[in-house]
Amino acid sequence: MASAARKIPGISVEVEDLLKVQGHLSGLSLSSIRRRSSLRSGARETRVRGRGMEYEESRAYVAGDDMRTMDWRVMARSGEAHTKVFAEEKQRSFLLAIDLSASMFFGTRYGFKSWAAAYTAAHIGWLASLAGDRVGGLIVSPESHHEIRPGKNKSGLLGVFHHLAELSDTRLASSNTSTNSRLNFLLGELRRVVKPGSNIALMTDFLGIDEQTSELISGIVKHNDMTVFWIHDQTEVEHWPGGHYQVLLDGEKTAIEIPASESRSWLKDWQLRHRQEIETLTTAFNLPFIPISCNREISPQIVQNINLL
């Protein structure tokens, strides 16, 4: 039975709710993102990034067959020469790269950033699946990381949903107080496992962005298309009223008092620098950039921002 903690609106992630997201996608597609990506890397149909062929079956060897496609295993079992038959692979892999670092388990109203990332992933994952792509994922949290290989018949997408729900439940019950960003770890793993020619949707708050982030993304987008979803709380983009705040520092809760005058200076400077770092990164690689607030319903934001690309 699900624990009560998993039922907290805006924090809990339930597989059943992620499945229901499909019903909110009427009239929406990823075509605008694909067109934007094609401006950077060429049209999808003419791009050569991998073999583009998928094994279908083996048949008896016929004189003139390419020796490189010989099926040596079948030949060893049967004693007769066989060759592999390949079908053109029409489906592309679509990876949902989801950063669930400690900073993502935060939100001042409506929902946590981790919750917003999960529902953003559900929207984009469903759109990719409905477009015929094989959906998989890579998810990192403070405690673990999970690779879900792209699968047929929505199996990969469902695997992503189950991991997101489990990680939500685990994090709520966790005593792990690590505050380190795992963004670069996620990107490193993504570069290791992604196959050339894939589509990637990256969901993160970018609170761990640095020079290594740019280097890792540079290596990934050489042979793949990436769309960036900046998951943020409004406190990362708007003025904080002066007042009493509780924060987590080095694993311990502490209280700080922010006078109204000071909150308009150092905080505004940090917000501006952070936004500029993200925009500089996405502009450098011409990546579609979609901001998503955890303080509002996700579906209208997805519709609005995809239509603006």
CATH architectural grouping of the largest domain: 3-Layer(aba) Sandwich
Gyration radius, in Å? 22 Å
Estimate the global geometry from the Cα principal axes. elongated
Helix content range: 25-40%
Q: How does the helix and strand content classify structurally?
A: alpha/beta
Quaternary state of the chains: single chain
Give start-end ranges of low-pLDDT stretches.
Answer: 1-6, 42-51
CATH class of the largest domain: Alpha Beta
The CATH topology name of the largest domain reads Rossmann fold
Task: Please give a structural write-up.
This protein is α/β, with parallel strands linked by helices and 309 residues long. It has two domains: 4-43 and 92-308, Rossmann fold (3-Layer(aba) Sandwich); 55-88, no CATH class. Helix content is 38%, strand content 22%. The protein is built from ten helices and ten strands. It has helices at 15-20, 31-41, 72-78, 113-130, 155-173, 183-193, 211-221, 260-263, 266-284, 298-308, and strands at 53-60, 82-88, 93-99, 134-140, 145-151, 199-204, 225-232, 243-249, 252-258, 289-293. It is elongated, with a radius of gyration of 22 Å.
